[in-house]
User: Which sequence fits this backbone?
């Protein structure tokens, strides 16, 4: 598990690596154009391309700034092109996008699309199993603080395609008031 560093406000991962490496949920998708495929902000895309990632791996999103990764076929499903299915490792883990850093959390609209909410994806076995623990509840507060920080809220509002549609498999844990306000003009 990564640990938070107050001097460097990055989002830490609560799920231990060995749990992720033994899971078969993340980075796998049922269709080639899955809306759940990772979204990169323009800054994240530029960084990836600067590190040698083919710019053709990305497709523009509705916000005009962010891009979604193009998935590749693997057996009878699709995977992120940065995912190694044999080891369950991410080849760009140190520079993975915010969308991936957040998981098992999801930014999405409420069912009536009136608010932006934070939820925990119950398809993640760790999230489902440990959701009610004190450590996970503390982590939820850390994620809320991170997402609702001024800089991150501005980044998400500018790249609003990071906010997904309501998903029934996601348990809503918090309404993100600042993010709702920051994006309300876009959806008014």
Assistant:
């Amino acid at each position: 598990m990564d640990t938070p560093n107050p001097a460097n406000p990055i989002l830490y991962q609560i799920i231990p690596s060995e749990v992720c490496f033994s899971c078969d949920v993340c980075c796998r998708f049922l269709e080639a154009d899955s809306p759940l495929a990772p979204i990169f902000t323009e800054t994240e895309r530029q960084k990836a391309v600067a590190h040698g990632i083919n710019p053709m791996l990305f497709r523009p999103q509705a916000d005009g700034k962010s891009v979604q990764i193009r998935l590749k076929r693997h057996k009878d499903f699709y995977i992120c092109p940065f995912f190694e299915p044999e080891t369950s490792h991410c080849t760009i883990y140190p520079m993975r996008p915010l969308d991936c850093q957040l998981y098992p959390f999801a930014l999405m609209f409420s069912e009536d699309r009136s608010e932006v909410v934070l939820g925990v994806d119950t398809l993640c076995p760790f999230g489902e199993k440990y959701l009610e623990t004190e450590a996970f509840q503390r982590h939820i507060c850390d994620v809320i603080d991170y997402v609702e920080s001024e800089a991150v809220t501005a980044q998400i509002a500018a790249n609003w395609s990071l906010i997904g549609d309501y998903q029934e498999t996601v348990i809503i844990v918090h309404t993100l008031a600042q993010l709702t306000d920051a994006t309300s003009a876009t959806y008014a």
Observations:
- The longest strand covers residues 116-121.
- The chain has one domain: 17-187.
- Confidence is low (pLDDT under 50) at residues 1-8.
